[in-house]
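I am writing to request your help with a piece of structural work I have in hand. The matter concerns a single protein, recorded as an amino acid sequence and a row of backbone structure tokens. Could you please explain, in whatever detail you think fit, how the structure tokens follow from the sequence? Thank you for your consideration; the sequence and its tokens are set out here:
>
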Amino acid sequence: MMNLDVEGARLVLTARKHTDDENREPEHLVDGKYRPYGEQERWAHVEPSILAEVVAEHGSLEAADRAYEAEDGKQYDAWKRGDWWHVGVRVGAALHVRLTGAAKDLVFEDFESESIWGIESNSEAEYFVESAEEMAAELRHRLVTEYALPQALVDAAELVLELEKERTL
């Protein structure tokens, strides 16, 4: 039996943006038509302070509904033209282990990743970063609780953001 000594280990989390192959119709539609607005229950979940802001900005909930409907129409038309599409952010983990005397690290990447899908491709860059950070936090937790990696190793893990270019799965 050969005895292998570990010289060091590091964990790298990588966030990547992927094209959503399904690119479903935006949620703004019901049966191919713009979602109807103006239904009272539509506003039932909104906090009173937010409702007051909406009314102050638009004059009434009905006027806000019309403004949002027009904005949704523009967004849907842009989707039909191919100006935007749905993407996802996936965060994966790779464990790099250096054995004493080895020239290269052994790399283990067989960890389940965390992901979020249905993001509009034209979203602000900060939203992609926030999404990646949230997914990384969830993955860090799972690496400790499900894979039993040492907390110190997981805490020291670098998060590499590769969000500029989309990839297909």
Q: What stands out?
A: Residues 6-22+85-167 form a domain with the Immunoglobulin-like fold (CATH 2.60.40). The chain is about 35% helix and 30% strand. Residues 114 and 134 are 9 Å apart (CA to CA).
